[in-house]
Task: inverse folding
């Protein structure tokens, strides 16, 4: 089940796809066999890698492609009155059966210029689906890449939680974000619908409004909690109050009783009674060190006496590094009091509040004591670069290669149907991606392969591969899915392997990462440059 | 009909809303009457105004609020095993009937701290809907504001077209963007589904791939076009070729025949045959001035001979100001050749390619000749600030005011149920927004009203209003919509009036706009500060 099904439909496209479709049809070239490549020109976030995501959504879209009667009716309205009626019959007849889709495995690390998908089929049909394909790949890949960068920055042991629903582009923006952040490396989401639809673990505890809703113990309607392993009942509020007095006597935390909020304590008690085994408290509503942590420790120790183990606390403001270290100090101090309090030293500290990649790296440098980050805005909006910029370009038609020229060399397309390989070196890391003409023989390991920069003549290298992987598989042909699709967890695992195992650290690092090479074979180089010259008009001087 | 219906459902929420709901229910405070305010703290994009949008979506969400059996089943799975079974019966029984929603009119210009919506009802139910409401208001308001800023920058005569679908956060991100850019001030969208669902005018012509698909006249399968007002047939390709030769002889455009692409001409002819009355050509595939414009003028003049009138051209790269002026020059030159070519001077020039507010202002300074902007990425992703940051705060519970304190004064909430007014001065412009206690009498025009800054003691002013508007209406009560909802076009019109007619120019300008004042009454000021002191813990020094 997929929460997007109802919206991913043929009309989710730019109007010009429909006008072009009509013009192709009118010209009689709509059925000409065409090949389109989907690729991007620049890695996002000043980085040197991208995670490819959205493939399954593209395939489902093509699988279900069919204009409804009301769609056709609408298209009739927006095209000129004199549009030929046979065109609408043609539209009605369209489906994805004539398309062939080759793609890189979803979750792979990918690089500029290499086609993520190659879509072949009737010219007009290929053209019609451009916008939907770009819509489905662009944000999915962008946010998965962003999530992977958060994972890189925070290390493999950090718990990463996506909290972005309220800042995403509407309901489905939020769902898409949750799904692709998970595959990019996040452990869970706050988005319950994403949990239900995709099986992603859901996480969360309480908001400030919950804490504020308890001004005093009067708002605590029940105070009793059963001991975990007996029928005996304890008064969690009384027990927590006692623990609190004891704590303030015991430790020199620089706090006086009058500073510690009774409303906050009451809210913690109410929450702990509801969730005695998963108690995680938001402790910054009043003052983390002068109120929140005192109440949290008090309730946690009282819970402990009843046989339950608190999970941890969350801070959502202030100096997260300083606070996390102060909290850890207090937890360690508590843990040394009694053997049975040993668990306190590992108490989970969750931090949220405008976390981004840079914050995480700065926190790392300050040797923070945070166990989990909750990330919203910067993750789902991809603040640093909110669009990936994938494009969808015609590279062949009726067996003739097509090239899109531009005065800007980076915008020239690599023409023709291609095959693409990832070349690995002796140490197991990927060295470069190589594009070749479809007609060339496969490159072989342990042979010298000449790899050229597609546009800079002097940049070339001989490569001796220890391993070569063909990048594309056929996923959709003759109206059928012909390659099994991985589960979300398999895609997630593939992202991790693809980046962490196969990509050299210098390509992954935050500051001035080394660009990963994307090359063409000698034959493709010559083919590309010959075609370029053939197509570039010749000016005349005087 | 609304494209979001299927996704805007109770589970589209953060998990902590459900855990808090359980804790409230378990504590027996879930039915306590509560009041929550939705507001933001800072206008986006370094501006001093925001457009409020998303209200109808919120109301529809509340109207349809009901957990499905499978939702309940899922919640059962994610809550601890020992959660009480009665809670799920309670969830099943929940709907929006107990809520009251007051709101500012959708499309109004709004300012920090003033509640956009005030939601009253049972504590747990109010809490449950927080995330969905924020999700529906945040991006809608942000992107509507962005669109309104583009409109401000480009003036009322510019045609503004939203082309953002491929860069939005998935399918519904794109739909949401199209809808709210339209109300914010855009004239049309490329998004066909948005056209179908919301009745927004759809716009678009052709992509580079269409142009590239014609390498030579061989790919032109039909060349004939009927004269508009007779049965006579012309060969549009031959006629265009003749016009082109004639043009190159006639004018010193510094172009030789060999530079002008025949493939491009063929593609224009194919498109013009399909759309003879709405011919708009993308002219930058090869070279705007050395190929595109020559072919475009040639085909347009040939169309003219057949009785049709071309609409214009689009440029998607290069120096848009320079190119637009060069294009206008050529069009004007053509228009002076013959009386019947007069229409050529007004030929539409559409520009796209990474347009943002700053580009538009720079183009204005350079006195560009562009008639329409197509805007994608910067508009829908809100690159400059991709999240609005609306919050949802508890302000009263069981008739007691609630305040959320913070060491950061800008984060302190204004407690209690309030009434809010917009005060207008003699010249018809809005002077300030005023929040009062719900119990205070309405302020009256032509009386002195003392307005105070909510936190800065010395900032206060006496205001003599010429007109006072109450900002909030009750939209939802006792399970019914009680205020009629405006159409999309009415909301769009209201945005325009609300900004252009009522807001002083200095609040709207791009550079260092004057902050609009948001004040509280004397009584609310005292109430707020008393409550603050009551709730702030007292520290002790030595």
Result:
């Amino acid at each position: 089940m997929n929460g997007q099904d109802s919206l991913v439909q043929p009309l989710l496209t730019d109007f010009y796809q429909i006008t072009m479709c009509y013009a192709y049809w009118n010209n009689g070239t709509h059925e000409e066999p065409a090949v389109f490549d989907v690729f991007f020109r620049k890695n996002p976030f000043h980085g040197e890698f991208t995670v490819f995501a959205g493939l399954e959504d593209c395939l489902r879209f093509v699988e279900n492609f069919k204009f409804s009667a009301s769609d056709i009716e609408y298209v009739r309205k927006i095209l000129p009155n004199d549009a030929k009626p046979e065109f609408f019959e043609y539209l009605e007849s369209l489906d994805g059966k004539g398309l062939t889709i080759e793609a890189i495995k979803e979750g792979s690390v990918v690089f500029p210029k290499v086609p993520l998908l190659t879509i072949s089929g009737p010219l007009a049909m290929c053209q019609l689906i451009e916008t939907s394909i770009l819509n489905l790949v662009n944000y999915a890949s962008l946010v998965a890449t962003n999530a992977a960068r958060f994972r890189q920055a925070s290390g493999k042991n950090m718990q990463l939680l996506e909290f972005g629903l309220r800042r995403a582009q509407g309901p489905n923006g939020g769902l898409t974000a949750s799904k692709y952040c998970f595959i990019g490396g996040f452990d869970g989401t706050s988005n319950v619908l994403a949990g239900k639809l995709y099986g992603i673990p859901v996480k969360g505890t309480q908001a400030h409004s919950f804490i504020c809703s308890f001004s005093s113990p009067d708002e605590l309607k029940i105070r009793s909690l059963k001991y975990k392993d007996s029928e005996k009942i304890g008064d969690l509020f009384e027990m927590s109050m006692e623990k609190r007095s004891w704590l303030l006597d015991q430790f020199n935390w620089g706090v006086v009783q009058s500073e510690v909020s009774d409303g906050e304590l009451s809210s913690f008690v109410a929450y702990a009674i509801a969730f005695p085994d998963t108690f995680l408290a938001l402790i910054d509503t009043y003052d983390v060190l002068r109120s929140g942590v005192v109440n949290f420790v008090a309730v946690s120790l009282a819970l402990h006496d009843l046989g339950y183990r608190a999970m941890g606390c969350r801070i959502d403001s202030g100096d997260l590094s300083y606070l996390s270290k102060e909290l850890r100090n207090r937890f360690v101090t508590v843990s040394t009091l009694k053997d049975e309090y040993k668990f306190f030293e590992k108490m989970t500290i969750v931090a949220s509040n405008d976390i981004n990649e840079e914050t995480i790296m700065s926190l790392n440098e300050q040797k923070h004591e945070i166990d989990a980050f909750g990330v919203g805005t910067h993750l789902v909006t991809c603040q640093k670069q909110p669009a990936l910029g994938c494009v969808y370009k015609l590279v062949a038609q009726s067996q003739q290669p097509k090239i899109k020229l531009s005065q800007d060399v980076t915008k020239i397309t690599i023409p023709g149907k291609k095959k693409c390989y990832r070349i690995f070196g002796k140490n197991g890391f990927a060295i470069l991606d190589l594009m070749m003409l479809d007609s060339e023989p496969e490159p072989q390991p342990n042979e010298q392969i000449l790899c050229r920069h597609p546009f800079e003549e002097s940049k070339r290298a001989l490569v001796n591969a220890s391993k070569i992987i063909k990048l594309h598989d056929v996923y959709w042909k003759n109206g059928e899915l012909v390659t099994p699709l991985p589960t979300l967890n398999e895609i997630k695992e593939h992202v991790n392997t693809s980046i962490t195992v196969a990509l050299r650290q210098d390509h992954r690092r935050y500051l001035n990462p080394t660009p990963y090479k994307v090359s063409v074979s000698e034959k493709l180089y010559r083919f590309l440059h010959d075609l370029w010259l053939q197509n570039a008009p010749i000016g005349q001087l005087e």
Remarks:
- Residues 15-147+385-535 of chain A form a domain with the nicotinate phosphoribosyltransferase fold (CATH 3.20.140.10).
- Chain A has two domains: 15-147+385-535, 205-370.
- The radius of gyration of chain A is 29 Å.
- Residues 130-154 of chain A form the longest helix (25 residues).
